[in-house]
Amino acid sequence: MTTTTPWDDWDHILKIDPDKDLPEGVTYGDLCATGTDAIEIGGTMGVTEEKMAAVIEACAEHDVPLYQEPSSPEVVLEDDALEGYLIPTVFNAGSPFWITGAHKEWVRIDDDYDWDRTTTEAYIVMNPEADVATYTEADCDLDADDVAAYATVAERMFGQEIVYLEYSGTLGDEGIVRAAAEATDDATLFYGGGIHDYDSAYSMAQYADVVVVGDLAHDEGVEAVRATVEGASDA
Ligand code: 1GP
């Protein structure tokens, strides 16, 4: 049975890192109004509860679904403005902490876990230079067959609704994104990393169901993000 999920209809996610500033003159409201289908709030380093709360509050008044993507249990916030929690689990992590360890801690300390609003994202981390790769000790030495196999394991063995091909900070290999797309059937394929304009968004969205744009919002601002929304929806 195929279930309907919110991300079935998405083309584009804007990921806001609470630890990074916005360009001068740009507000969170401006970013919410770029046409993106959802906002994910999360980052790998330096995220605190206070910084997370400030971004949630600033985005809450705008009409775009808001998800928290916590990197550790300490920064999880309960907030009615959130549609839910997208929880990374890194399939190619070198440390089991990033596969199930952090998750175990979260469940252990939270007596009132919000299961209805929680979905995991099966990350495959691909850029060895990225913080997320060093942090999780990810094995990024993967070819298209390896990535396709991870995507299949995520979907078929572990029942993951979301497979997230993560090139954070660099544009990925189209052939590998395509292999991941061909390997996934029911799961929604998120692609993130290095998307900086219409063409890069279009090229990855030809294969990925959803493209995730991160640093561009912090480095360039609204018009650049809007161009990626157009590229993703035209593909
Ligand atoms: C990061 O996949 C996202 O988690 C987006 O990557 O910052 O390179 O756009 P960029």
Notes on the protein architecture:
- With 235 residues, this protein is an alpha/beta fold.
- It has a single domain (9-234), classed as TIM Barrel (Alpha-Beta Barrel).
- 35% of the residues lie in helices and 17% in strands.
- Helix 1 links the parallel strand 1 (12-16) and strand 2 (38-41).
- Helix 5 packs parallel to helix 6 (174-183) and helix 7 (198-205) runs parallel beside helix 9 (222-234).
- 44% of the residues are buried.
- The model has no long low-confidence stretch (mean pLDDT 95).
- SN-glycerol-1-phosphate binds at residues 15, 166, 168-169, 192-195, 212-216.
Proportion of residues in extended strands: 15-25%
Could you report the average pLDDT, rounded to the nearest whole number? Answer: 95
CATH topology: TIM Barrel
CATH superfamily: FMN-linked oxidoreductases
Oligomer: single chain
The main sheet comes to:
8 strands, parallel, barrel
- Major beta sheet, strand line-up: 1-2-3-4-5-6-7-8
Distance between the termini: 27 Å
Q: Helix amount, in percent?
A: 25-40%
Low-confidence stretches: none
Shape: globular
Count the strands? 8
Class inferred from helices and paired strands = alpha/beta
Bound molecules: SN-glycerol-1-phosphate
Annotated CATH architecture: Alpha-Beta Barrel
Question: How many domains is the backbone divided into?
Answer: 1
Keywords: Cytoplasm, Lipid biosynthesis, Lipid metabolism, Magnesium, Metal-binding, Phospholipid biosynthesis, Phospholipid metabolism, Transferase
Protein name: Geranylgeranylglyceryl phosphate synthase
Family: Belongs to the GGGP/HepGP synthase family. Group I subfamily.
GO molecular function, one term: heptaprenylglyceryl phosphate synthase activity
